[in-house]
Amino acid sequence: MLEVELKKQGKIKRLTNKTFQFPKELGEGFYAANYFLKSNKIIKDKKPGHIVTMQWFQRRDGAMLCGIDEAIAILHEFAIHPEELEIEALNDGDIINNMEPVLKVTGKYENFGYLESVIDGVLARRTSVATNVKGVVDAAGDTAVFSMADRQDDYHTQVGDGYATYVAGITRVSTDAQGLWWGGKGMGTMPHALIQICGGDIVEAARIYHETFPNEKVSALIDYNNNVVHDSLMLARVLKEDLKAVRVDTSKALIDHYFDDKDTSGFDPHGVCKELIFALREALDKEGFNYVQIVVSSSFGLDKIREWKALGVPVDVYGVGTYFVNNTTCGFTADLVMLDGKPQAKVGRENYPNERLEKVPYPIY
Q: For residues 109 and 338, is the Cβ–Cβ distance under 8 A?
């Protein structure tokens, strides 16, 4: 989407409720915690008109903030008289620390209070994904990273997670939904299912793939027969320069046939191990296929990528899924900290100052 790209380039400050598509039920309280709905009704009926300040924070140092623009858009779309709210916020992509307020909203509680838990969830999900992605991107350095997170969670999460992934620096995603907010398109390799339909014949699968998409070089999943080095060479000899990459996705429960006649006592040969990737790169280069890239996937996360980068394992692209989205690292909390211009909060919480907060106009556009 053009608006997101303009924001990425610094030409616009924030995304708006014209960017985000929200279900109408969000404004009807369907997604709100019930006790917030009850509180809203009680305050509206019994204690209306008080001006409160609510602030949001989390407890991790060095997190990458995301979901702020979405939260503001929710407030502008579903709060009562949003033009009367004073909103102060950081920006998506900011690095935040423990207990640092990222969003403050001042106004009548009955006009926005029921949205508290919805905003908690948006900030927690988007910030967790962005933080996880940023960690992997930083660890991978000049090696590309491909998000395969579509298959790790409910499909409704793809659009928002895709935006958080983009904020953190990844544009290679597996579905169009992940790229919706920034105009990206899904990409990927030849799947296992195609090989299965071809009776396990990787060469045949690659041949009909290339016939169907003649302008696209083949990126082939190569672990179907659990014989990665052998099958990669076999395929490269047939496709030659039409083979762009091989992707190794060996299950952690298996040991590749490459190790059948080799001593593996000094390492764990299961799954996508570094020894297999070193052997694959050496075999491809030895036969002149140095242009064939190696893509790895299956259980890759921050620690494993850090280790492999330090050891110089010859990987061209890391495919990451579960680590990005099934790893909630940043849970957000919202508290009321001011009442009618005076401090009022539960013990242990207070109105924390943050000079980085910016006032958000209404409307933004």
A: no
